[in-house]
């Protein structure tokens, strides 16, 4: 049985249906990316999963306990990090975590050990005596994550945890979440930053206007709707040398004369080439089309120094699944 089972979840706010018939399951040890634009219903769904709200209809089972009928049994299993989390003035990292550990009912040595182990895991030990208000956003966010881990929950619900983090803090967050999944925790992370989710998640769910448009393994979603595993876009780099712009212009003209090429644009030191291929085209046909272009460029004496097809990414899949209706 899956750790989390969400069945036909619906949440109406007056006449607005914020969550509309959402169903999915999540296994222990896996990370689900919850993707959708602003207002899609991500936070509402996560709040219901955190037992902070109740669905209009539908059912959620966590380790067999109904979140609607027996929230008290499910709560100890849940760690929830909302999209806006506060810290208190004049409180150190240790005091902040210790306060919440008390709230979770931990006592004495057990409490101290738990706070220390959470600080160790999140890399906060050297900052234990720093005021939380003096921390960077990335570090404050680790404190918030640490707070959700104090009672060792089995399901982690993280609402836009990567929002506003710099690239380094994002990578570090990714590593922390992977380590938590490796410990057997199930993680749901919502975001509108698609590329980032692709790297971190095992499965993903795309939501728009309250409805799930696609769910499944990231690889399967990448294939969905687009028909091909590889986006028909190529990147060509030239060793243009002294001739410079003339070489780029020649390559651009030549590429535009080739069959299937619909668009060529210079981007810095590369040409991006878009192809038009029939729906259902597979990677082999994309490769064949690319080979024709490479042969044409080399035969014309153009100094190609790199030539690659761009992998279809989650952003492409999102645009296909939502039919480009949302940005
Ligand atoms: N308490 C509420 N009362 C009325 N409407 C609400 C309430 N909470 C959310 N909504 C509405 O429900 C819809 C879904 O909101 P939700 O916050 O779940 O979206 P989201 O995907 O998390 O977006 P964001 O990334 O902007 O937080 C929105 O139209 C929102 O205005």
Automatic annotation (TrEMBL):
Pfam families: ABC_tran. Gene3D superfamilies: P-loop containing nucleotide triphosphate hydrolases. PROSITE patterns: ABC_TRANSPORTER_1 (PS00211), ABC_TRANSPORTER_2 (PS50893). It comes from the Bacteria. Residues 4-234 form the ABC transporter domain. Keywords: ATP-binding, Nucleotide-binding, Transport. GO terms for molecular function: ATP binding; ATP hydrolysis activity. Belongs to the ABC transporter superfamily. This is ABC transporter ATP-binding protein. It comes from Pyxidicoccus fallax. The lineage of its organism: Bacteria, Pseudomonadati, Myxococcota, Myxococcia, Myxococcales.
């Amino acid at each position: 049985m899956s750790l989390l089972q969400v069945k036909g979840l619906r949440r109406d706010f007056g006449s607005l249906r914020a969550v509309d018939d959402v169903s999915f399951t999540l296994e222990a040890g896996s990370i689900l990316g919850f993707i959708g634009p602003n207002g899609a219903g991500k936070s509402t769904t996560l709040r219901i999963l955190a037992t902070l709200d109740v669905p209009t209809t539908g059912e959620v089972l966590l380790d067999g306990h109904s979140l609607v009928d027996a929230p008290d049994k499910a709560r100890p299993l849940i760690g929830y990090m909302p999209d806006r989390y506060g810290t208190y003035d004049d409180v150190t990292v240790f005091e902040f975590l210790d306060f919440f550990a008390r709230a979770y009912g931990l006592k004495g040595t057990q409490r101290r050990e738990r706070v220390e182990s959470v600080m160790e895991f999140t890399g906060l030990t050297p900052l234990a005596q720093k005021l939380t208000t003096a921390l960077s956003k990335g570090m404050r966010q680790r404190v918030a994550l640490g707070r959700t881990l104090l009672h060792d929950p089995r399901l982690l619900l993280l609402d836009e945890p990567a929002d506003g983090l710099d690239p380094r803090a994002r990578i570090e967050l990714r590593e922390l979440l992977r380590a938590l999944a490796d410990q057997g925790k199930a993680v749901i992370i919502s975001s509108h930053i698609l590329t980032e989710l692709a790297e971190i998640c095992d499965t993903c769910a795309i939501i728009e206007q309250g409805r799930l448009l696609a769910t499944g393994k990231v690889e399967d979603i990448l294939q969905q709707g687009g028909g091909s595993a590889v986006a028909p876009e190529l990147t060509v780099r030239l060793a243009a040398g002294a001739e410079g712009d003339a070489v780029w212009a020649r390559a651009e003209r030549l590429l535009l004369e080739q069959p299937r090429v619909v668009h060529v644009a210079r981007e810095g030191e590369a040409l991006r080439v878009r192809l038009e291929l029939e729906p259902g085209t597979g990677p082999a046909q994309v490769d064949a089309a690319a080979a024709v272009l490479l042969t044409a460029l080399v035969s014309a004496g153009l100094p190609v120094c790199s030539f690659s097809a761009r992998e279809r990414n989650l952003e492409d899949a999102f645009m296909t699944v939502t039919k480009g209706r949302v940005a």
